[in-house]
Each structure stands twice: as C-alpha cells, then as structure tokens.
Amino acid sequence: MSSKELLTSSYDFCLPKELIATYPASPRDSAKLLVYDRTTGKISHVNFWDLEKFIPKNCALIFNDTKVIKARLFGEKPSGGKIELLINRALNAHDISVYIRGKVKVGTKIIFNENLIADVKELLEEGSRIVNFYQDENFTKEALRFEELLPIIDKIGHVPLPPYIQREDNKEDENEYQSVFAKEEGAVAAPTASLHFTKEQHERVCSKFPHAFITLHVGSGTFKPVECDTITEHPMHSEYYDISDEAKKLLDSEIPILSVGTTSTRTVEFYARNKELQRGEANLFLHPNNRPLRVNHLLTNFHLPKSTLLMLVASFVGLEKAMELYDIAIKERYRFYSYGDAMLIL
C-alpha cells in the first residue's frame, strides 16, 4: 500500500454542483447503477432495476433495517430566541446527544410544540450538547425515555435531510428518505444504498437470495469529513448496532456476503473482528490500511470528498481505482450523495 492512500488529500475531488441529487429518482429503481467487477475489470452502466442480473448466485445479502426519525426540531428559548435542534443519538434512556444551532448554555430550556421541553445538561467540546426532554414544565416528572420521545417528534419534527441537499424537507421526503424495509427507529440519516429498492424489487431479491437484517442507527457523524492530514488519525464516530440471529448465522457461515450499504458493511466488519458482541457500539473505520475481512461485495452510493465513506469504498478497490470510478461516474453524469445513483462492487 502506498503512503498516498493514507493522505486525506488523496480522497478529494471536484464535483459539479448540478450532480448533487436534491430529489430522489422516481421510481426508486430507475436510478443509474455503475457495476464494477474486480475479477474482470469490466465496468457496466445500467439501471438499479437490473441489479438482480449482477448479484453472484452463491451470495447472501445483508440489509440495514434502521428507520430514520424526524430528528430536526424547531423551538425557542423562554426569551423568544429561535433554536434549531438536531437529535444525534440516544446515549442512554434519558440523555440525548444533539446539535443546536443558536447560543445555549447549561440550564437553557428550549420549548417546542406538544409541550415538549429540552433541558441542556452539558456542552461538549466537539460541538454536541447533552439534553433531557420533558413534557412537564415544572420538571416534577422523570425525563422522557427515548422511546417515549419518538412518537412526539414524529408529530412535530422534520426529516433530517443532509446539509448538502439545501432545501426544506417536504411530505414526500417522509417516505422517500426511508427504505421500504425500515423498521427499527433511531437513525438520523438514511442508509442510502437501500433507498433504491422498491417494495417489489426488494421482495423479488429476497425470494431469490439468502438474506438477513442488521440494525445500525446511522448518526450525523456519517457526514463529518476527515480533517486530519493522515486518515488513520481520524477519530471515528460510534453508532449503536444490533445483529439479528438470522444475520449472525449467515455471517458465521462461509457464504459470500453482499452488503447493502456502507452502514451494513461497517456493522458486519465490526462483528467479524468482535464476534462475541452481537449488539453494542460500532466505531470501525474501513480504509485501504484496514480492509474488509467478511464482506465480499458492496452496494453503495457515491459519497462526499474526504469522507470516511469514500475511504470505505477504497478499502475494497484501493485508492487509485476508487478515484477512477468516481471520475467515470462524474463524466457519465451520475447523481451523487444520499438521493443519488448507486455503485455495485463485485
């Protein structure tokens, strides 16, 4: 491996603004699909509805069934100052990690609709805040548990579209920024490779291939660019995961794995290194110096420059090939990022 593969600057590229997808393909499976076969070197340009033609016959698929919550909340301080709050993740039953746009200090109360109040408990150096949520303005009752908070924010919250989409969320995003098999609530970003599946295509694929579900609640850290000069110095964010018994059986077998998305990949690879841990916190950073041990094939979208997700792609194909594939995708006018097109690495 060359030292170039460890330099963050090596993962930079220039993307024309018009190739940033701000709306999803319709229908979902009409998105474009770039297929790269590492064995033959062949590159194919097809549509996502052609996916089944390329999945190896002796292969099992792993899907992430996390469900995006309406994590973006708008409220105000008692003084009337406007506040925007983005839920990041639950740290435990009551303590919630959030990002707040607007000045706050410990003890600040933020008031939302549905009598919801956030009490700022701690300010962390990296910019996040720890809050407790209440529906009792006198704070005589215990703070809301995360599972109690979810139905409230489902009423008053907004879909947490990524910052690069640069528009307000709408009613369609409630369905489109969610996989058709989303089940376990807790993500604040979608596992985007999954967004291309229609219900019919997903059922068809699952009827033809062994498959199982894992859960990784994607946090906002997934969008954080690598800021260190050397990628191995990057402090990888942590996310809650749970591997179903069905998934464990497949992962413990010898069958080749096609991982649907980078989130599934990180979960599978974390388990491959920590097999006694079927659930917990995963913080694995895959890159050319830390390659996959268990996942054989990857289905993914096209990711941000200098992101850990692009480095994960390079862990499968190497830096030079990853950047070559991205260059081809740009020349072929593929759409990038969460609502963009897809790539299959065989």
Keywords:
single chain, 346 residues, alpha/beta, QueA-like, Thrombin, subunit H, 2 domains, 7 helices, 20% helix, globular
Secondary structure elements and their pairing?
Layout lengths: L31 E5 L6 E5 L12 E5 L1 E3 L3 E5 L5 E9 L5 E6 L7 E3 L5 E7 L5 E6 L11 H11 L16 H4 L7 E4 L11 H10 L2 E6 L22 E5 L1 H8 L4 E4 L1 H12 L5 E4 L12 E7 L6 H10 L1 H13 L10 E4 L1
Parallel strand pairs: 1-17, 3-12, 3-14, 4-11, 14-16
Antiparallel strand pairs: 1-2, 5-6, 6-7, 7-10, 8-9, 9-10, 12-13, 13-15, 16-17
Rg over alpha carbons: 20 Å
Q: Percent of residues in helical segments? A: 10-25%
What do we call the CATH homologous superfamily of the largest domain? Answer: QueA-like
Structural class: alpha/beta
Number of helices: 7
